[in-house]
């Protein structure tokens, strides 16, 4: 490059354009040279973005389905009066456990004792009448043999004996009825369970109709747990089973775990023992029931719990961490890394959550690599620096996800 004095001499020697002062022409000619001398050096290229990746694998993944459920007594009995009368007193403590045969209420027995006495008197009368008819028949039989009386007299004597025998049988029945009615004045518990409050107070007149409801007894061991499955959920899971994407356990033997309101897990595991064969016309749901051992009576009827149904397996499932899936304008997507360590955006279809992972139903193939950490800073078709690989979740660690299973019973998935 020429020195500035030499440039100045050359410019002075050049002819200036017409009507342009020579000094202005020289300044315009020197301006590009000055700019070129003061131009800064080019900035270095930024380093590749550091990311962690994971390789896509397909594997059978155990899953659990969680939904809201409610406990129910496996045997709830309404204690009712079986005869009409006055209630003398309650002899149990409300809200306490009662045992089989324990007396709960006492009714006034005096009217029933009197009725029993009357029935016994009627029986004695009929038995005396039967004795007389038998003696008469015994006297008539030899007289007929001697032709002292007619055959009709013998037939009448035998008929009166049969009538007397029938009257005795009826009187015995009346005595039994009176004895039963008297026994019904002592009202006992037919099972072991938790007692409810007394619906009738001492001195109330109760009948064997609706007003005869005295209390309720709830059996606590075993305990039932009811939950419902919507028709859409059931059809969806059944379709996945038919396509081989979801597998239920042998004989649909699901295992159920309860999570209580405070987050603690109930120690006993339950099994599904009943599924209603019809959908509810009011809610469009399918009722399923599980049974739990409750030896310490910690579960009570009417509790709201979360039921986790385990035993299903997603076949050849693809799981990716939730942080690797980004939300686009219209769909979810991930960054797929090619062999040149460049990222390309890929639209995926997500399924249910599985703990910290997400099931991917469409969009990824086994063997591909996706960005896990650093995906928010990735630019398409830009080289990446892979600094680590994310470890997949162990297959033996099922985590709740999704909604209730379509079957939940021994006869749902097969249909």
Automatic annotation (TrEMBL):
Residues 390-415 are annotated as: Disordered. It is found in: Cell envelope. Residues 406-415 have a biased composition (Polar residues). It comes from Pararobbsia alpina. The lineage of its organism: Bacteria, Pseudomonadati, Pseudomonadota, Betaproteobacteria, Burkholderiales. The gene is acrE. NCBIfam families: RND_mfp. Belongs to the membrane fusion protein (MFP) (TC 8.A.1) family. This is Multidrug export protein AcrE. Residues 75-211 form the Multidrug resistance protein MdtA-like barrel-sandwich hybrid domain. One of its GO terms (molecular function) is transmembrane transporter activity. Residues 316-374 form the Multidrug resistance protein MdtA-like C-terminal permuted SH3 domain.
């Amino acid at each position: 490059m020429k020195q500035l004095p030499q440039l100045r001499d050359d410019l002075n020697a050049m002819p200036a354009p017409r009507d342009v002062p020579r000094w202005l022409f020289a300044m315009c000619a020197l301006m590009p040279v000055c700019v070129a001398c003061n131009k800064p050096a080019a900035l270095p290229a930024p380093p590749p973005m550091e990311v962690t990746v994971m390789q896509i694998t397909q594997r059978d993944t155990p899953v659990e389905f969680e939904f809201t459920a409610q406990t129910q007594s496996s045997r709830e009995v309404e204690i009712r009066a079986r005869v009409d009368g006055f209630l003398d007193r309650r002899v149990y403590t409300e809200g306490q456990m009662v045992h089989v045969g324990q007396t709960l209420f006492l009714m006034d027995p005096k009217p029933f004792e009197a009725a029993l006495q009357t029935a016994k008197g009627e029986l004695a009368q009929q038995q005396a009448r039967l004795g007389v008819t038998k003696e008469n028949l015994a006297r008539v039989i030899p007289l007929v043999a001697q032709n002292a009386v007619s055959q009709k007299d013998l037939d009448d004597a035998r008929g009166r004996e049969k009538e007397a025998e029938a009257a005795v049988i009826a009187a015995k029945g009346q005595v039994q009825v009176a004895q039963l009615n008297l026994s019904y004045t002592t009202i006992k518990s037919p099972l072991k369970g938790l007692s409810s409050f007394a619906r009738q107070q001492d001195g109330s007149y109760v009948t064997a109709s609706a007003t005869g409801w005295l209390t309720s007894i709830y059996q606590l061991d075993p305990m039932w747990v009811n939950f419902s499955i919507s028709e859409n959920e059931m059809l969806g899971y059944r379709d996945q089973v038919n396509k081989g994407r979801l597998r239920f356990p042998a004989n649909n033997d699901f295992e159920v775990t309860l999570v209580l309101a405070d987050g603690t897990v109930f120690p006993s595991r339950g099994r599904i023992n009943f599924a209603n064969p019809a959908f509810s016309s009011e809610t469009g749901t399918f009722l399923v029931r599980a049974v739990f051992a409750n030896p310490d009576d910690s579960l009570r009827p009417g509790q709201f719990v979360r039921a986790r149904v385990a035993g299903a397996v997603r076949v050849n499932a693809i799981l990716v961490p939730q942080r690797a899936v980004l939300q686009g304008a219209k769909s979810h997507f991930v960054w797929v890394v090619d062999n040149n360590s460049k990222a390309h955006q890929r639209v995926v279809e997500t399924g249910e959550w599985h703990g910290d992972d997400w099931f991917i139903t469409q969009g990824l193939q086994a063997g591909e690599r996706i960005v896990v950490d650093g995906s928010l800073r990735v630019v398409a078709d830009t080289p990446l620096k892979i600094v680590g690989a994310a470890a997949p979740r162990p297959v033996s660690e099922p985590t709740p996800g999704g909604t209730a299973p379509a079957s939940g019973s021994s006869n749902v998935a097969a249909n």
